[in-house]
Amino acid sequence: YIVAKYGGSSSLVPNTAEDQERVKYYLHYSEASLQPDMSLLLVSNNVRHSPMPIARKIADYMDGAFAGPDAKMQLEYSEGKLKHNATGYFLGDRLTGADIMLIFPLQMAKSRAALTKETYPLLWKWVEDMQARDAYVRADKKVAE
Question: What is the mean pLDDT of residues 114-134?
């Protein structure tokens, strides 16, 4: 919304209507498919550290039966999208709103799911590259302050 409303000629605005629709796709994919798995893994991890043994068993079951396999499927899918695009971005050859939306769940995947340099090298590099961008570093510094 912010890019569409205020982006004007920003480099974040895709050049074609088709690419604008793809940004919307990644927005919805991030929020409806990828983020829920990462959030569930976060919750189950917190439950797992509870003093109640039954809570740990429930968390283990949730991860094994649903969140873990689904997160793996989402990461494989995302790795495939980066491989297919072959530019280091999810869409086109430059940063778009798609990349901005996907950074949140994919950086969570590094600590909550099986996103490692060995298992998903393109996603790992993408997250590292996104976190090294000047704007990301500046924003992260402001949050820390």
Answer: 96
Question: Would you state the structure tokens that stand for residue 110, as one six-digit string?
Answer: 């590094």
Q: How far apart are CA 10 and CA 13, in angstroms?
A: 6
- Residue tagged 């990462």 (tokens): 38
128 closest CA partner among 100, 107, 143, 108? 107
Helices (H), the chain: 2-6, 17-29, 35-48, 53-62, 68-85, 97-112, 121-132, 134-144
Nearest-Å Rg of the Cα atoms of the chain is 17
pTM of the model: 0.87
Burial class (CB in 10 A: 0-12, 13-18, 19+), 36: middle
d(C-alpha 62, C-alpha 101), whole Å: 26
